[in-house]
Amino acid sequence: METRLLGAAALLCLVDVLQAFAIEDKGDLFKRMVCPSFLMFDNAAYWADMTFELPCNCKPEEVSSVVWYFQKDLGSAKTTVLTDFSGTVVVDSGHIERGSSVLKRFSIRMFSLIVFRAQVTDSGHYLCGTKQGDFFYGYDVDVQPTTDIAVAFVDRGQHVQEDDTQKLFSLFTSFWDWTKCDRCGVRGEQRRIGLCYVQSAQLNPRYRTAVPNVTSCGSRAVPARFQHPVHLRRPEVAIRSCLSPCPKEEAPEEGVQAISNVIAKLGEKPWLPRVPMQFHKQPAGTGLILACPGARPEHAVAWDKGSVRLYRSHYLIGVSKRSRVFIDHGNHLHIPRLRHSDRGTYFCWREGKMVAGFQLRVTPRQQRRRTLRDPETINAIKVIGMSFAIITLIFILIHMCRYYWGREGAPPGCNGPARPQPGSLNAQASLP
Questions:
Q1: Torsions phi, psi of 196, nearest 5?
Q2: How does pLDDT run across 302-327, given as a tens digit for each residue?
Q3: What is the mean pLDDT of the chain?
Q4: How far apart are CA 369 and CA 13, in angstroms?
Q5: Dihedral of CA 33/39/43/44: which sign?
Q6: Neighbouring-strand partners of residue 309
Q7: What number of other Cβ atoms are within 10 A of residue 74's Cβ?
Q8: Region of residue 302 (phi > 0: left; psi between -120 and 50: alpha; otherwise: beta)
Q9: pLDDT at residue 69, as a whole number
Q10: Is residue 52 a contact partner of residue 141, using CB atoms and an 8 Å limit?
Q11: Contact yes or no for 346/358 (Cβ under 8 A)
Q12: 3-class secondary-structure state, position 198
């Protein structure tokens, strides 16, 4: 017992030493890097829904905690303060709702700012400093949208966008490396993400870039007179087929193999892949969005329905108007307006390995009695009330016109054609 306690104490001491070494190594980094006397902004570009990290690369040694500031436009009076003094720490990014405020999607770890599921509205300036307002380092973040992406299927002979060269600037796409094959053992697909960049000698010199005179299209370094044609350039993605063998798994020992065979024979469906399974029960007519566990937009993700492969060449959003089911650019599977035929088991692959299954059961849509508080009921009451008011107004106007019709001096528009008066010329002319 004493030996175990001594071992545990030694392990805890070792953990403390490693943590202290990591903090000391981080401190040495700040000693080596001197903060610039004039604040510059490093350019960084991402896709929407990606998670990015901004390290505070320099700070005075005596500063033990930092505060991050966000400004949409530099010098704006509206500034968002990002601090974890109140315990704002995101543990599981999978629980973050899309479109929520950046105040609910950030974390500060070892002076670095981490923003989860970035949105286009998160584009702007991020400054590392203190709560007294002293700034040490800055970033110019450009989050490019995924709603209108140019897609090129290489197998069909399609090509990516060509460079657009103007007199004072040129636009081009900077591609990431090809992802891994999203499936193994069968035909899969690879993606290559491309972000929009601009090259010009007239960029704002206060913004620092990895390549001289090159920055992302949404950067604040781009002059205002270039922004309209620059915004017409879209990010893009290239997709091609691939074939990758599955890695060999270590075979269990002979006794374990025999036991697993017995368990498989006792199961109801031993032919299904042995992956963690989730069960979903949804009413017909509702929508369902499936996310592959642990997957991010930049990962290689694939979806299958049973033995049917849901390839992006047919199910990518915007590719086929006939397909109701689609995969978005964030690797989510969308099934709108569920039907009884959508029931079944869906599998997702991540980085070439099947990782999860989703067993979907579609139930009949239950009829429920609506109340006065339902949004549909409120809208119906508004429409009916407005229609009744319009009909009542028309009814009153018609009766007012009929009242004034037979009177002299009726208002214009209410009286009909003039009636011949007795003794008038027209009345006499009509006599035989």
A1: -80, 135
A2: 999 999 999 999 999 989 888 899 99
A3: 80
A4: 64
A5: positive
A6: 304
A7: 16
A8: beta
A9: 92
A10: yes
A11: yes
A12: strand
